[in-house]
Amino acid sequence: MTVQDADFPEALTSLDREQQERAIHLLRTQLLKGVQAGLQGRAGADSAFVEDVVQTALLRILDRLHTFEGRSRFFTWAMSIALRVAFSELRRKHWGNVSLDVLKESGNEPAAFDGEEALRPDHLTQRRQASQLLHRLINEKLTEKRREVLVAELKGMPQDEVAVQLGMNRNAVYKTAHDARKVLKRSLMEAGFDLDELHATFSSNPTP
Amino acid sequence: MTLKEDEIRELIDLLGKTRDREIDCDACLEQVAEFAEQQLSGKEVPEALDAVQQHLDVCGECREEYRVLMDVLRSSGDETRN
Question: Which of B9, B15, B22 to mutate: most A Cβ within 10 Å?
Fold first, then answer.
């Protein structure tokens, strides 16, 4: 016997134990299938991993059941939570051995630009000036924490991992990065720089 | 600390998409199911969900989760629809 999507919230909290267990079993089956498909081909996402994260996700879904407002299908809502759990765990697996300190120490010399020998001298100068400006603003305008979080994000470290290493949660990491972006954006505008022009400076085919 | 060229490019891109007020990852998760279904249906995304689109534009992790959610929904087809 199946459970219709709209009936899941009630079935999952049913006082009829048999009905509740059936709903949990069906939901678990759907989530396993979806997470398995969603993570297919990703390193570390073997069947044991998928089973574990789906189990964790199920508990979270049941815990948050009261927040489901019916603005989407229940399956979509549940799957979005399951994928959040799955990806958070997978990212931790991949990044758990990378320290923020390593990212902070990633070079102290100005980065060379790809194919800079092919760039016109004025374009190369513009790129170097823009790069120097951004680095200066990052160092001068951002607090240490905001700089740390922003640079970690730009260097690919997931927010979940940054959160663990800094003793924060993912939302706090996001807010810190957001604050950093706002400060930099405002600083650029106050210094008279246009983001579209900066974007064009770093485009692969700068306009002559 | 030095940013490479592609990191600088990404930073500029992010700054261009930055808004004074943005929702965080948890708030995005609360609304992404509705957002995903609106996108799948081809309907215009209501203004109330505009913040979700913006968050997905700037948050790589949420964007990755959203894309996979869309793939799962597309492939699940009639199996889970009422």
Answer: B15
Q: Taking the model in full, what pTM does it have?
A: 0.90
Residue A177 has pLDDT above 80, yes or no: yes
Tell me the pLDDT tens digit for each residue of A132-144.
899 999 999 999 9
Q: Exposed, middle or buried, A47 (CB in 10 Å: 0-12/13-18/19+)?
A: exposed
pLDDT tens-digit readout, A98-157: 888 777 665 555 556 666 666 677 878 888 888 889 999 999 999 999 999 999 999 999
Residue at a domain's end among A95, A110, A143? A95
Greatest extent of chain A over all pairs of C-alpha atoms, in Å? 76
Do the Cβ atoms of B72 and A79 come within 8 Å?
yes
Q: Are residues A106 and A91 in the same domain?
A: no
Cβ–Cβ gap B14/A181 under 8 Å: yes
Of A6, A91, A134, the CB nearest to B8: A134
Given an 8 Å threshold on Cβ–Cβ distance, is A131 in contact with B8? yes
A108/B35 Cα distance (integer angstroms): 42
State which residues form the domain around A15: 5-95
Last residue of a domain, one of A95, A113, A133: A95
Residue A206 included in any domain: no
